[in-house]
């Protein structure tokens, strides 16, 4: 029997100033899902500011790492191998010679990105995960920092600055005050940073992801997921100042922070704090996507690029794990009369819940609600903020009849307002009704209608279809009625 042929994976090798990384992504799909991810710290750019050349030790380490990564990529039978070199190779006097030797030895092609190309790819990576991003993308590497204005899915003004953590630390000689002066001298000539005022600053890059881990630990944030972790500017500035003043020993005590990054984190935090002060955004948002994901995204067909990343991921899960053909849209439309005043953002999360509403059917019945909740909360979705994750997870939890006094849901509840929780209950109960009424079978729900009339929720069902025979006392309809602000439930049998 023939099935749908699985697309070949796509590999990207990123030759950075501090590290070299291979990421192999799972074929052509809207969300770049890593199948394999390995990093080698080579410090190619160490000493570049003083010598103008690549580190000799780093060159040998890089040659070994790239040889391994190319061999692995070919063994994985990738459709495409993109090898990109950034600031250190671009700026070093021997960078082109280094690239030429590798190309000859390994029969590969390496693209040395200009500063503008690197900036645009980094911004495109953030837009891949957050299509609605409005503000400024800041991407930090070992040799450079890229700043890009984004909005309406596009990139605008951009700049590449020699403020990578490796280069900045060496230029400042480890002095915080000198580093602050260097940063200010590069940011001062950029009046267009004010275009980020009142919007968001999106921080990307490994060092800033490590800073995000410190922020999560410092604030006891209930969800240890870096992507789309957001904090308001005042709190972000306070945290950056705190991290910038921490000793190495203090930072090493924080769990899950790479020891190889510890020495650079105060400098990374100082830089981020200065950018926050200059741009004055309303909030800081951390993104796990950057240049590599931008490179992946730009090769996707336009139709895939236009898809919502969250809904695309949920649709894929529904198609592969649901009992029947994916039919989340019909359930979305069916329950829409219960939510007349919802925003587009609320509808999006409700749609995601409708897509995931039948995904966890094969979990153990005694743990189905908890498993559905935890997996939804922690899945590698992109394009969804932490409170939205919590709302979505609670919708699935209620759909599978989870009890809200269970300890497992405390993480989500702490991120939700009373109105968020009420709405999550309503969506979850409506999903439970839809799947209970139809057995989860596509098309049957279209033969029924769910409406609000006065203070009553009315379920209209065809009188001549035994599959849709039900009674208000047979289902917990009263909970659904209360969740949408009604008092009673009526099942109306419709003839013809």
What do you see in this structure?
It contains 22 helices and 14 strands. The protein is an alpha/beta fold and 496 residues long.
Short structural summary:
This protein has about 500 residues and is of the alpha/beta class. The protein is built from 22 helices and 14 strands.
Largest sheet: 6 strands, mixed
Strand order of the largest sheet: 8-7-6-9-11-10
The helix content is 40-55%
Number of strands: 14
Terminal-residue CA separation: 42 Å
Give the overall shape: elongated
Query: Which structural class do the helices and strands define?
Result: alpha/beta
**Regions with pLDDT < 50 over 5+ consecutive residues?**
none
User: For the CA atoms, what is the radius of gyration?
Assistant: 26 Å
**Arithmetic mean pLDDT:** 91
In terms of DSSP E residues, the strand content is 15-25%
**What is the count of helical runs?**
22
Task: Set out the fold topology.
Blueprint (H helix, E strand, L loop, with lengths): L9 E6 L3 E7 L8 E8 L6 H4 L4 H20 L4 E6 L1 H5 L3 H12 L3 E3 L2 H15 L5 E6 L4 E7 L2 E8 L3 H8 L3 H12 L12 E5 L1 H14 L9 E4 H12 L3 H5 L6 H4 L2 H15 L3 E4 L4 H8 L3 H4 L3 H13 L6 H8 L8 H13 L11 H11 L7 H14 L10 H4 L4 H21 L10 E5 L2 E7 L14 H7 L4 E7 L2
Parallel strand pairs: 1-4, 4-5, 6-9, 9-11, 13-14
Antiparallel strand pairs: 1-2, 2-3, 6-7, 7-8, 10-11, 12-13
Helix pairs in contact: 5-13, 6-7, 7-12, 8-9, 8-12, 9-12, 15-17, 16-17, 17-19, 18-19, 19-21, 21-22
């Amino acid at each position: 029997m023939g099935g749908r042929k699985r697309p070949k994976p796509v590999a990207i090798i990123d030759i950075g100033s501090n590290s070299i990384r291979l990421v192999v992504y799972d074929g052509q799909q809207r969300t770049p899902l890593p199948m394999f991810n390995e990093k080698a710290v080579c410090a190619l750019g160490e000493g570049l500011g003083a010598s103008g050349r690549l580190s000799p030790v780093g060159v040998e380490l890089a040659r070994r790492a790239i040889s391994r990564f190319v061999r692995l990529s070919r063994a994985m039978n990738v459709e495409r191998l993109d090898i990109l070199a950034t600031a250190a190779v671009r700026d070093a006097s021997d960078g082109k010679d280094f690239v030429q030797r590798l190309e000859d030895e390994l029969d590969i092609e390496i693209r040395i990105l200009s500063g503008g190309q690197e900036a645009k790819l980094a911004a495109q990576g953030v837009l891949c995960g957050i299509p609605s991003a409005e503000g400024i993308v800041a991407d930090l590497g070992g040799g450079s920092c890229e700043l890009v204005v984004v909005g309406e899915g596009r990139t605008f003004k951009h700049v590449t600055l020699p403020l990578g953590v490796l280069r900045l630390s060496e230029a400042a000689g480890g002095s915080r005050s000198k580093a602050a002066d260097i940063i200010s001298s590069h940011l001062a000539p950029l009046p267009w940073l004010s275009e980020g005022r009142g919007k968001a600053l999106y921080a990307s890059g490994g060092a800033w992801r490590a800073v995000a881990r410190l922020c999560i630990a410092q604030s006891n944030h209930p969800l240890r997921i870096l992507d789309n972790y957001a904090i308001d500017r005042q709190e972000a500035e306070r945290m950056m100042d705190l991290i910038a003043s921490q000793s190495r020993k203090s930072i090493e005590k924080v769990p899950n922070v790479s020891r190889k990054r510890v020495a650079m984190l105060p400098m990374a935090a100082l830089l981020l704090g200065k950018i926050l002060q200059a741009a004055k955004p309303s909030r800081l948002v951390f993104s796990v996507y950057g240049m590599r994901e931008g490179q992946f995204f730009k090769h996707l067909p336009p139709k895939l690029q236009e898809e919502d990343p969250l809904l695309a991921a949920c649709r894929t899960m529904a198609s592969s794990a649901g009992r029947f053909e994916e039919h989340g849209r019909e359930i979305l439309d069916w329950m829409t009369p219960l939510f007349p005043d919802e925003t587009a953002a609320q509808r999006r999360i409700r749609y995601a819940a409708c897509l995931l509403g039948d995904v966890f059917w094969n979990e153990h019945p005694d743990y189905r609600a908890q498993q559905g909740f935890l997996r939804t909360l922690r899945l590698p979705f992109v394009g969804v903020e932490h409170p939205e994750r919590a709302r979505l997870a609670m919708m699935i939890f209620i759909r599978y009849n989870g009890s809200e006094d269970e300890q497992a849901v405390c993480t989500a509840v702490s991120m939700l307002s009373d109105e968020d929780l009420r709405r999550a209950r309503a969506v979850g109960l409506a999903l439970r009704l839809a799947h209970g009424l139809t057995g989860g079978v596509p098309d049957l729900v279209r033969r029924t209608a769910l409406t609000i009339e006065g203070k009553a929720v009315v379920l209209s069902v065809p009188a001549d279809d035994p599959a849709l025979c039900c009674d208000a006392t047979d289902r917990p309809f009263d909970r659904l009625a209360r969740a949408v602000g009604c008092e009673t439930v009526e099942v109306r049998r419709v003839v013809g």
